[in-house]
Amino acid sequence: MATFLDLGFLEFFLPIFTAVFIFALTFGMLTKTKFLSESTNVNAVAAITVAIIVLLTEDVVKLVNFLTPWFVIIFLMIFMIFLVLMFTGKKQDEILPHLGGPTFIVIISILLLVIGIGNVFQGVFSPYKTDANGDRTTGGETIKTIFHPRVLGAIVILVICAVAVRQITENIAPSK
Questions:
Q1: Where are the alpha helices (DSSP H) in the chain?
Q2: What is the reported pTM?
Q3: Which of 50-54, 87-91, 128-132 has the highest mean pLDDT?
Q4: Rounded to an integer, what distance in angstroms lies between the CA atom of residue 157 and that of residue 159?
Q5: What percent of the chain has pLDDT over 90?
Q6: Per-residue model confidence (pLDDT) at position 157
Q7: In this predicted model, what pLDDT tens digit does every residue of 98-136 receive, in sequence order?
Q8: Residues contacting residue 25 through CB under 8 Å, at least 6 positions apart
Q9: Closest CA to 25 of 60, 77, 58
Q10: Are 103 and 162 in contact (CB under 8 A)?
Q11: Quick check: 51 and 26 in contact, CB under 8 A?
């Protein structure tokens, strides 16, 4: 039965949306940083080239499609935190350093990227691959160990503890 909220037909256009997203992101970064040139034509050609290369690489399209919703959710969470803290009277310049600064956002982005790569390329880096003799490979066992839920949980707890220690020690005045 067709419903108003059935958006399954948009999956057909998902690679095109991904290419447009990559074009806009690349063009915006090249224009802002003036990495290649100050000419918008050069930046547009470079952005179109990158978007076409991404469009032709199926795994990169899957990676972008996996990561985009997570980055949107993280952005919305940060926006809501800013909104709540600004309603309580904090200035906008005070909030980001209090949350951990730009390094916190970079760490979250890298963590999301690693999780996305692990999810998209799990068939390539399979922990169950065997060599010619049927024995387990060292690389497969290493991947299996690194991405074990207990190890990932321990890493998350260590990151949380490190951020907590940084926040606690940052506010303590040195004793004389």
A1: 14-33, 40-56, 58-87, 92-99, 101-120, 138-146, 149-171
A2: 0.62
A3: 50-54
A4: 5
A5: 22
A6: 92
A7: 777 788 888 888 998 988 888 887 766 555 566 566 666
A8: none
A9: 60
A10: no
A11: yes
* Assigned token pair, 145: 């160990």
| Contact assessment for residue 74 and residue 112, using Cβ atoms and an 8 Å cutoff | yes
Own/partner contacts of 67-72, CB < 8 Å, gap of 24 or more, are: 67/112, 67/113, 67/116, 68/21, 70/112, 70/116, 71/109, 71/112
C-alpha–C-alpha distance, residues 34 and 38, integer Å: 5
Ramachandran bin of 89, using left for φ above 0, alpha for ψ from -120 to 50, beta for the remaining angles: left
The per-residue DSSP string of 41-66 comes to: HHHHHHHHHHHHHHHH-HHHHHHHHH
- What token pair was written down for 93? 């310049």
> Does 15 or 23 have the greater pLDDT score?
23
The DSSP call for residue 8 is: G
Q: Return the axis-axis angle of helices 101-120 and 92-99, rounded to nearest 10°.
A: 50
